[in-house]
Amino acid sequence: MTAAPETGETTAPRVAPETVQAASSLLAALAAPMRLSIVALLLEHGSRCVHQLVDDLGAPQPLVSQHLRVLRGAGLVAGERRHREVHYALVDPHVGHIVRDALDHVSHPAVGAGPVPVVEDGAGCPADDGMSPR
After folding, report:
1. Which run of H or E residues covers position 47?
2. Second label for 43, Cα 20 to 30 Å away, from 9, 22, 34, 121?
């Protein structure tokens, strides 16, 4: 068991490696502008069929289908057949909020933007000014 810091601050619990790997896989599945756009559209509209996504994105149908395949494979979207069309929707709207937060984050300049110095971590590691090469 790790002792609590002497300053009275609480530390966040360590994240399990399998949780970190799952989060990395989620972010990797989202790591394409087209997939981010698809998720944002599904969050906005609830569900869309392929031809609606093609129209919304102005992209060729095979490209949209390829990106939907990646999102389906990652378990982020699911398709439901309705007559001759498949309508896609987010499996978990939380994923849409992650994408929306990322898009909002880059849409406006951060207050006080610039490198933030990192103080010594108490384990003897030198402070990182954010500017030194690694």
Report:
1. strand 47-49
2. 22
